[in-house]
Every structure is written in structure tokens, then in C-alpha cells.
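Researcher: For the record, we're logging two predictions in this thread. I'll number them. Prediction 1 follows.
Model: Prediction 1, sequence and structure:
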Amino acid sequence: MKQGFSLIETIIAIAVIAVGLLTIQLGTSIVMNQRQREFDEQLAWYQLLGELESPEYRFRVTKMDRYQLILKSPRVTKRPFLLRHRRTVETKASHELMLTTPYGGYLPLIREVKDVTWATKKNRLYLELTMMKGQKFSALTSVPVGLDQEKGEKK
């Protein structure tokens, strides 16, 4: 009787080990990809706050309604900036917050936004965002609110 493995037994053992390692690698990459998306959403949130609180523009909210904020800047006196929550044309399921400039350009600040609530707290802009995947963000910004019209205090 021979001791050891035959060639076929060795090939089958190597194949089983390879399938096991590939399964582990695939599972790890899926988990890491999901965590990366959560970090990307968090980074986009802080970039949004950075744009709104930028000392370069020193925004002030002059009007609020359900889907947009009108922001004025002492640096740009022609027309106001708009911060809008809208559904994108390309994909019906994706929503985004977009900052529209007085010169016709726009800056998509954060994508895959399910719901946005803005309100006035302590004469400052308060934001709450809910992402499509359920992650929630909220912040009391340093952006002052001086509403031209007193209606529509909340989203």
C-alpha cells in the first residue's frame, strides 16, 4: 500500500483551497467596499459643510423653502446662490444637493440624498440629511439666517 496522495486527490485539494480563499477574498472586498461608501458619504458631508461655511463667501440665508435655500454673499452682489435638493435627470432614484452659482455654473455637493431638512436654530442654519442607504447627518452651521420673508422656516 502506498502512502501519500494521488495526483487527482492533490488537484482536488488545491481546487477546494483555492475556492475557499477566493470566497474569503470576495467577502472581504464586499465589506471593505461598503465601508468605503460610508466613509465617502461622510467626507461629502464635511465638504458640503466646508462650502457653506467658507470664509471666502460668508454666505447668509435670505430665503428658505422646501427644496432650496437662497444664499447671499457679500463678495457676489449681482445674484444669489441657490442650494437645491433635486432629483438628477440621469437616474431617477438618485437625489443630490447642488449649489448653483450666480454665473450659471453649479457644484454638486452631495449625491444619493433621500431627504433634506433645513431650519433656523439660534439664527443659524440647521441641516439634517438622510442618505439613500439610511445614514443620517445633522449640523448647526455657522451660516447666519436673515430671512427676507418669514414663511417657510422648515424644509
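Researcher: Logged. Prediction 2.
Model: Prediction 2, sequence and structure:
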Amino acid sequence: MKDLIHAAVNLEYRYAGDTMPRAVLGLNAAMFKTYLCFMANRRCMQIGLDALYPGASKPFPWMKTFLNPECDRIPNRC
């Protein structure tokens, strides 16, 4: 399972490099790669595996709010 997750992260790395060759305000390929490692670690822990990328941090503090559909509909919910 870890091999599959690692392969998926590597594919996403390539996608990030291809789609973000230049940084934009608050987002660049390196930050996105850090986020991918953070999310891969979360998924590993959710299924009872050790983290694949020790020390990976959450580079986008706003991501949880951005991805929550309730934030658009319920004021002060997020």
C-alpha cells in the first residue's frame, strides 16, 4: 500500500511541476509538493500505516476552509 501511495505522490509531483512552472501569490510547486506529502501522511495514518514523509508540514493553513463546502453557505462556520 505504501508503494501505491508513494507512486501517487510522485505522479502528483510531476503534475505540480507541469502546471505550476512559475509561482503565483501564495502557491508554488514546492509548497504543493509539501502539501502532497502532508496529505499522504494523513492518509497513511488513517489506514494504520506509518507516515511516508516524516516532518511534512501543512503549508496552506487556509486549505481546510477552502475545501469545506459549508464555508460558503453558513456564516461564521469556518
